[in-house]
Amino acid sequence: MIGESTIKWDALPKADGSFLYPSDLLRPEMVHVRVLRAQRPHALILSIDTSLAEQSAGVVCVLTHADISGLNRFGLIAPDQPVFCDSRVRFVGDVVAAVAAETEEQARAALVRIKIIYQDMPALLDPKYALEPGAPQLHDGGNLCHHVDFGFGDIDEAMTQSAVVARVSYATGRQEHAYLEPEAGISFVDEKGRICVICGGQNPFADRVQLARILNLPEDKIWVSHPPMGGAFGGKEDLNVQAYIALVTQKTGRPAKMVYDRTESIAYSVKRHRFDVEVEVGANASGDLTGFRAKLLADTGAYLTLGPGVMVLAAEHASGPYRFMATQITGDVVYTNTGNASAFRGFGNPQAILGIEQAMDDLAAKLDMDPITFRCRNLLKQGDRAGAGHILHSDATLGRLAEQASRSHLLRAPERRAAVSSATGIAFVWQGFGLGSGAERGSSVRLCRENDGRFSLELSQPDLGEGNLAAFMQIAASTLECKLEHIVLHNGSTDHTNSWSTVGSRSIAVTGSAVLKAAEAVRTRVNAGEVGRIEETAFFSPTMDAPLQKGAPHAGYAYGIQLVRVALDEVTGNLSVTEAETYLDPGTVISPKGVEGQIEGGFAQGLGYALSEELALSGGEVQNNRFSNYILPTIRDVPPDIRTILVSTPEPSNPLGARGIAEIGITPVAAAIANGLARLTSQRYAKFPITPEQIIGSGGIE
Fold it and tell me: Do the beta carbons of residue 215 and residue 244 sit within 8 Å?
């Protein structure tokens, strides 16, 4: 059964519309919650008057910072973001008050009756200015959120041995997650007296820790469940609705519901970090890489969120899967008043890989070498030191992928028909999976053979829509040699065995390996003739090197090569992708269709990141907070001819032999497209996404 594409357990109810998502949930006597946001990027709060709102029709309660008995802060790395701002706001989406009412319309009407007097302060909107003297200081420790300094060897000496040097500078934009289901949840008190929260999230245990601090309750008095939801892509790691509905239930004893509307989700939820990147790469006359130097700057917005982790991963991957004589990789994460940035599929790698992959194409051209051959000549092997400074424990398997990719029909010469020119772009990619050294906590699962002969699989990890739960069931059923329908799933809550989070492409490699171990232990006892109920709990966490910084290096990496055929309309500057191929080493494949779905979905997100998606801000406020003006790729933009070619090599870092592939599909897309475009225009572009206006304005079209 491992290696087969099966029907997911939730496919039919999702297809016929009967499946209930968090935003669909209702309970008797439920109140509706809305929050009041600051609507200004930086200000002091002088006074808050909620009296008129409290008198409004249908209002059950109005909450501010004064109503929190616990810690008025939350955050995954450190609790630095206010639940309710009490004295200062740092971005337009900061929450100052919440209203719970009998209907959502009554809650909205009451919000406008809350009177707040602000004293506006200078706003810091440009990350490049954040560390300059005289910049507004957003936190007591200043505007530097985190600093990274990786590398090895004498970089200056290595660069002197270069016959050719490529320099690439660019900025990336803020990308919206655009999940089908926005942030949503419901809260209530259960029969045990616990405050219960059911919502879209990525780690119920992490949510519970933060809620316990806020509510000033022991963790065992709180229950959190993350049922299958309509997408997350990293955007639901941070708290969104959880604290507000839980506080309302704690205050009133009544169930509470909150759902972001789409404009609220786009305007105020966390986003992909904006990066500014400078890269310098050298090679000698023989085609061997010499030195790599990179300087990274990331805008994390008003609060810490996961900014340090994003930069650590970006710096770890910035030099690509290549071997150098010496490297120097520095990165700063800074605070600004531009909103909040946090986890997004790829976790910093899509921003960083643009530098090395554009430079590799430029170096190959200067050396008059085939770009695939040049890359393969410099691939990391077992025992080599990667750019961040750690030793690789197994070969980068891109050579095997390159053998197949080199035979692709996409590797043909540029063509021109009328006013449309086309060419092929190439990008190699590596993507660490799991949470990296010092951050990965491992996963526990419980597997029981019940008295009726069926098997109960229990774990806390949620399914965000990618199908990890179906894969866990396949692993268990295949190992136990039973039918898939004999696996009964219990998952997604703090009552279940802690398998930690659905993040970082860790689900199959880490939690899947724990499922394998538990199933093997149960199978051994069954084969020994043991009767009755059998229960086994298994834990798996990969062996890690000492951290360079928390989160790096990773125990293993997934590898891929992406080829795209781009078409440029020389009249309008419109750039499209007509064909795409991804050559991927996923290790052990649980579901081939599941892998293909991840790669194709990631490609669509990468297409938007490369060509159209960017949040436009003015005065810290998002200007394009609707799908009508935030331009997502549609079915007309994703090429109909898109193929995923799997070339599997077992991954040695886990017993399942699997590589995490949930993120690698998005990471190389922008780089491959940029390289294809450069073959047509002989231009590099300083800003992503690359728009028609940039292409025409660059002079690359004659």
Answer: no
What 8-state DSSP symbol labels residue 638? S
DSSP 111-169: HTT-EEEEEE------GGGTTSTTPPP-STT-SEEEEEEEEES-HHHHHHT-SEEEEEE
- Supply φ then ψ for residue 138, to 5 degrees: -90, -25
Residue with tokens 């590589």: 659
Average per-residue pLDDT for the chain: 97
Residues near 358 by beta carbon (within 8 Å), at least 6 away in sequence = 166, 168, 170, 279, 671, 674, 675, 678, 684
**Tokens standing for 250?**
């704690």
Decide if domain 30-121+183-259 falls under CATH 3.90.1170.50: yes
Q: List pLDDT tens digits, range 363-396.
A: 999 999 999 999 999 999 999 999 999 999 999 9
pTM of the model: 0.97
- Give how far the C-alpha of residue 248 lies from the chain's centroid of Cα atoms, to the nearest Å: 30
User: With b meaning 16 or more CB within 10 Å and e meaning fewer, what string describes 420-456?
Assistant: bbbbbbbbbbbbbbbbbbebbebbbbbbbbeeeeebb
| Residue 346 region by backbone torsions, left for phi larger than 0, else alpha for psi between -120 and 50, else beta | left
Find the angle CA(518)-CA(465)-CA(589) to the nearest 5 degrees: 50
Span 149-176+270-436+549-697: which CATH code?
3.30.365.10
451's CB contacts (< 8 A; 6+ apart) are 532, 533
Q: How far apart are CA 702 and CA 392, in angstroms?
A: 46
Give the integer Cα–Cα distance in Å for 398 and 150: 24
Based on the number of CB atoms within 10 Å of its own CB, is 252 exposed (0-12), middle (13-18) or buried (19 or more)?
A: middle
Q: Distance between CA 432 and CA 314 in Å, rounded?
A: 10
- Cα 494 to Cα 364: distance, rounded to the nearest angstrom: 52
pLDDT tens string 213-227: 999 999 999 999 999
Tally of CB atoms within 10 A around 198: 24
> Is pLDDT above 90 for 323?
yes
Query: Within 10 A of 44 (CB to CB), how many other CB atoms are there?
Result: 13
- Give Cα separations from 249 to 93, 192, 325, 421, 485 (angstroms): 23, 15, 59, 60, 38
647-698 tens-digit pLDDT: 999 999 999 999 999 999 999 999 999 999 999 999 999 999 999 999 998 7
H or E element in which residue 252 lies: helix 242-252
| Phi, psi at 146, each rounded to 5° | -165, 150
Beta bridge partners of 278: 169, 295
Q: Which residues of 126-156 are buried (b: 16+ CB within 10 A; e: fewer)?
A: ebeebeeeebbebeeeebebbebebbbeebe
Domain ranges of the chain: 30-121+183-259, 149-176+270-436+549-697, 441-540
For residue 588 the two structure tokens come to 């052990």
Burial (CB count <10 Å: 0-12, 13-18, 19+), residue 400? middle
- Please choose, from the candidates 292, 261, 291, 296, the residue with its C-alpha nearest in 3D space to the C-alpha of residue 278: 296
| 149-176+270-436+549-697 and 441-540 have identical folds | yes
Looking up tokens 């860790």, which residue turns up? 506
Sequence-ordered list of residues with C-beta below 8 angstroms from that of 192, at least 6 positions apart, any chain: 223
383 vs 387: CA distance, rounded Å? 13
Looking at the DSSP bridge assignments, the partners of residue 100 are 33, 61
DSSP code, position 56: S
d(CA 515, CA 336): 42
Q: Is residue 557 within 8 Å of residue 461, measured between CB atoms?
A: no
H-only helix segments in 300-430: 307-317, 349-367, 371-377, 398-405
Q: What are the residues whose beta carbons fall under 8 Å from the beta carbon of 76, sequence distance 6 or more?
A: 206, 210, 237, 238, 305, 306
Assigned CATH for 441-540: 3.30.365.10
The dihedral formed by the CA atoms of 64, 66, 69 and 73, expressed in degrees to the nearest 10: 60
